[in-house]
Amino acid sequence: MAENRPHRFDRLPATPAEREVPGRATREGVVDFWAERYGVDPAVWDDYTFWEKGADKVWAFAGDVPTPIEVEALGMTFLRTGGEHWKPTTDAVQRFGRHATADDTVVDLSRERARHFLAGEDQELDWDGDWGYLVVRHEFGRRAEPIGVGLFVHGELRSQVPKGRRRKL
Fold it and tell me: One Pfam family, short name please (predicted)?
């Protein structure tokens, strides 16, 4: 039986029928997750391959290489699939969040709220959208740009900005 290996990248199987490692995410599952949760058009992923290194850590790569491959990194960390809910990474949201169109999982913050969010601060938020991991945006100029991942529960937006990337602005 195949297994996850912490020092090797394995391409995600295309569908559950092709899965060799029990519980491993699939390309189909990843694309469906982004489409259903955030409204990202599946065509966005046409030029990307998805990889798992170890358990539950999915990477996105703009290209293709043979599988498996033993390298330290390949593309960007993209999605955590362990646990009850999948969580996109900050890098993934900042890179691909502009394609998100779902009104109930994309939240736009004012300048002041964005400052608190980027500083890693949690804040109360009166919002009618879905609970869970959100694409958080702020308008720069005339365009809303994704700034990170937020976790919305019980009327509170919890910043998921990694400690090393937090900024006081």
Answer: DUF7122
d(CA 51, CA 67): 9
8 A C-beta contact, residue 56 and residue 6: no
Residue pair 148/90 in contact by the 8 Å Cβ criterion: yes
Residue 146, C-beta contacts closer than 8 angstroms, at least 6 positions apart: 93, 94, 96, 97, 98, 100, 135, 136, 137
pTM of the model: 0.90
CA distance 104 to 131: 9
| pLDDT tens sequence across 28-66 | 999 999 999 999 999 999 999 999 987 789 999 998 888
